[in-house]
Write a structure and sequence with these properties.
globular, Spore Coat Polysaccharide Biosynthesis Protein SpsA, Chain A, alpha/beta, Put_rhamnosyl_transferase
Length: 259
C-alpha cells in the first residue's frame, strides 16, 4: 500500500484579508527572511519527499509584497491566492478538492519548522480516514535568548489530519480539532524527539518559552533541526530578557543537577 501524500499548508499574513491593506515593508521583509531561513530549509531537509507545500496569500496584499512571496518560494512551493476576504482554508480546500486521497494535511506557519523526519514519520502512520494526529513533543525557541524550551503538548498547532476532497483542512484557529479531542479519531504520539519548532521573535510574541518548558541550549537546534541558531548579542537584551535569561539559566543548572 502506498504511503499517503502530505500537504503542508502555510498561511502567509492571514490577517491581511481582514485588514484589507498591506503590512509595512519592514514587517513583510522580516517575515520573508524567517520563511527563507527557517521554514523552507526545514522542508528541504525532509528525509521523505512525498509532500507538497502550499502557501496562501490574499489577493488584497500589495502587489509588490505578493510578488516577493512568490519569488521567495519559487520552484518549491505552490502559491494559492485567497479571493477577496475569503479565509485561507477555503482556498486550500478548493485546491485539494480533486486530489486523489486519502492524504494528510498539516499546518506549518511561516515562522515555524518541522523535524527532518516529520513527513516520513507522519506518512508511515496507519490510521483510519478522518484521523487527527499530534506529535506531542516540540521546541519553543526565543530568538532573543540563548535558550529554548522543550515542550510536550498534545493539543498543538502542528496537528495532522487524514482525509480527502479537502475535508481535512482546519481553519486558522484549529476550531475543528475540538470535535476530535475526545473521540477515537484523535491520536497523540508521545515522541521523544521534538518534531516541531515554534519561533518567538519581534513580530510574533504569541508564543513564549514558559517556566514549565524544559530548558536546553539553542545549540541543540542544530542537532535536532539542522539549523545553526543566530548569535546572541547579550548587550541588546532588555531587562525583561535578562530576567528570562537568568531564570532559564537557573532552571537549566537545576535540571542538570537532578540528572
Amino acid at each position: 500500500m502506498d504511503k499517503p501524500k502530505v500537504f503542508v499548508l502555510t498561511r502567509f499574513a492571514e490577517e491581511i484579508g481582514h485588514r484589507g491593506a498591506g503590512f509595512s515593508t519592514d514587517w513583510w521583509d522580516w517575515r520573508i527572511v524567517l520563511l527563507k531561513q527557517w521554514t523552507e530549509p526545514s522542508l528541504r531537509r525532509q528525509s521523505a519527499k512525498n509532500f507538497e507545500w502550499l502557501v496562501s496569500i490574499s489577493e488584497t496584499a500589495i502587489p509588490q509584497q505578493r510578488q516577493a512571496l512568490v519569488d521567495a518560494v519559487a520552484g518549491f512551493a505552490t502559491v494559492v491566492v485567497q479571493k477577496g476576504l475569503a479565509p485561507s482554508e477555503d482556498v486550500f480546500r478548493a485546491h485539494l478538492q480533486n486530489e486523489k486521497g486519502p492524504y494528510w494535511t498539516v499546518r506549518l506557519d511561516s515562522d515555524d519548522m518541522i523535524h527532518p523526519d516529520f513527513i516520513a514519520t507522519l506518512s508511515s502512520e496507519r490510521l483510519p480516514v478522518g484521523a487527527v494526529l499530534s506529535f506531542s513533543s516540540g521546541v519553543i525557541l526565543d530568538l532573543g535568548t540563548p535558550f529554548l524550551g522543550l515542550r510536550r503538548l498534545s493539543n498543538n498547532p502542528f496537528l495532522a489530519h487524514l482525509g480527502e476532497k479537502g475535508d481535512n483542512v482546519f481553519d486558522l484557529g484549529h476550531h475543528g480539532k475540538v470535535s476530535f479531542a475526545n473521540t477515537n479519531l484523535f491520536f497523540a504520539r508521545d515522541n521523544r524527539v521534538p518534531m516541531w519548532l515554534q519561533l518567538v521573535h519581534g513580530g510574533n510574541q504569541a508564543n513564549r518559552v514558559m517556566p514549565w518548558d524544559r530548558p536546553a541550549l539553542t545549540g541543540n537546534v542544530l542537532k535536532m533541526f539542522g539549523v545553526l541558531p543566530p548569535k546572541l548579542n547579550v548587550s541588546q537584551l532588555s531587562p525583561f530578557r535578562w530576567l528570562d535569561f537568568l531564570r532559564h539559566l537557573v532552571f537549566f543548572k537545576m535540571s542538570k543537577a537532578r540528572r
